[in-house]
Amino acid sequence: MSNDDCLSLQGVTVAYGGRAALEKVTMDVPHGGQVAIVGPNGAGKSTLFKALVGLVPLRSGSIELRDRDADTPAEPIAYVPQREEIDWSFPVTVSDVVMMGRYGRLGWLRRPRAADHEFVAGCLDELGIADLAGRPVGDLSGGQQQRVFLARALAQEPHVLLLDEPFTGVDVSAKEALLEILERLRGRGITILVSTHDMQTAQQRFELVALLNGRLIAYGPPPTVFTPEHISAAFGGHALFLEGMVVIDECCPGDAPDKRSAHDHRADEP
Amino acid sequence: MIHWLTEPFTLEFMQRALVASLIVGVVCSVLGCFVVLRAMAFLGDALAHAILPGVAVAYLLGANLLAGALVAALLVAAGIGLFSRRGAVKEDTAIGILFAAALALGVVLMSTVRSYATDLTHILFGNVLGVSAGDLWVTGALAVGVLATVVLLYKELLLASFDPVLAHTLKRRPELLRFVMLMLLALTVVVSLQTVGVGLVAAMLVTPAATAYLLTHRLSSMMLVSAAIGAACSVAGLYLSYYLNVASGAAVVLTATVLFMVTFVAAPRRGALARRAAARRAA
User: Fold this and answer.
1) Which residue among A38, A55, B59, B208 is the one 20 to 30 A from B132 at the CA level?
2) Band of the pLDDT at B233, cuts 50, 70, 90?
3) B213: nearest CB among A77, A91, A97
4) E strands, A155-238, in order
5) CA-CA distance, B130 to A81, in Å (whole number)?
6) A77-87 average pLDDT score
7) What ipTM was predicted for this assembly?
8) Domain limits for position A35
9) How far does the CA of residue B213 sit from the closest CA of chain A (Å)?
10) Which domains does chain B have, with CATH numbers?
């Protein structure tokens, strides 16, 4: 791990029962770097994030987080969950949700202070959702809901931001808006890891890509990662090479073969 | 009219019944918000039935029934937490096993007593008119304890209910909070024992909170509205019971049910009519 690295994984292995979901993953992420984590379903993308936030124990290996400043915040890693993991019918407003990002800094039994309310207002402003502050989260569009959870993550003042499948289930304009926000965060030195099925976005909009399928198949700038050998290693028989284009068939794992539909890797997967 | 309203409460036992009903109405309705949002209704019902052996033992020993109920409820809550903690069996399975076993044990114990039928009825369906001044103090103290815990841990309980993953990453111990929640639920069930009984406490936990859920969009306001509904239904149920000469616990529960049905149809945003109108506008 060099001084410029923010996050360093050494031989990280995670297993559920006897089955290894993640095997000997070793990678360093530089400060302020933005990494797309791609791979087929069940490749361990979510497991990697869960390991990073401490939700699943490591069987072996280590995760090291290095802060450029000496003072490490209470919870240096913020995690933006997949849409399906949230109960959207829960009675909370947008500002309630974003305020939860401050809870780590508030002790048990402490009420949010004026400074916390200001900070939350700042995060809402930054993501352009200040006018939604009093609305119930269940009433918002997919793109707005995502920004609420991004605002909550920023309210944690993290050093590392993990976004789990943020491009899934949102429309094109919401996706572009999110990419713009990520661009702005680059300037603030926040290190960002994004898991995604969307290989086109990974290829075009990220400086670093990690291709995962249980183990780390390739990691580096997109041109060095998206090679036919790597793609075959990650997607196996589901990858088809047709005149310079890669077709990946992994729409419906477990379905009967005749029900599967082939997807161009350029297409946004459902 | 005023006379009609005040007449029942000139009797001392009716005054005690009113106070007990209000306490139970408010505590059940506030805690019920978590029961509804965390889908713990089955758990609440099971806890209620599970206190039966505790009450039976206390009864046989001539000890305080509330104390017996309290011990049993806390034991069962801890047992459910323990059985399902590491996913040894699914939680509803753990609940099902303990709940039926405790109920059976309670009936076995109670059936050794001759006046079994009447006493069992009182425990199952409450006997608010028989609340003593001493009972009222115990009920009040437990209620204050439950409500104070909810107020103090509001932030943590909100977080753990809405997003256990964030609660975990912020080191807010969601499994500890779950245990606290189970204990609060156990205390609430004990508090309700005398007014609505073990058979109907689940309704008091769920119905006012579900009604409030349809009317609000913040947890804090849901709790306040739920408490108001619970209190109002308790009073209305007592009047019904007095003037129609019917069982009070059941009258309270039916009042709450009617209110829920009206709200379900007519609530401004989440009601059936409002939703249909919104769907028509969208179409």
Assistant:
1) B208
2) very high
3) A91
4) 160-164, 191-196, 208-213, 215-220
5) 52
6) 87
7) 0.82
8) 1-72+160-173+192-237
9) 8
10) 2-275 (1.10.3470.10)
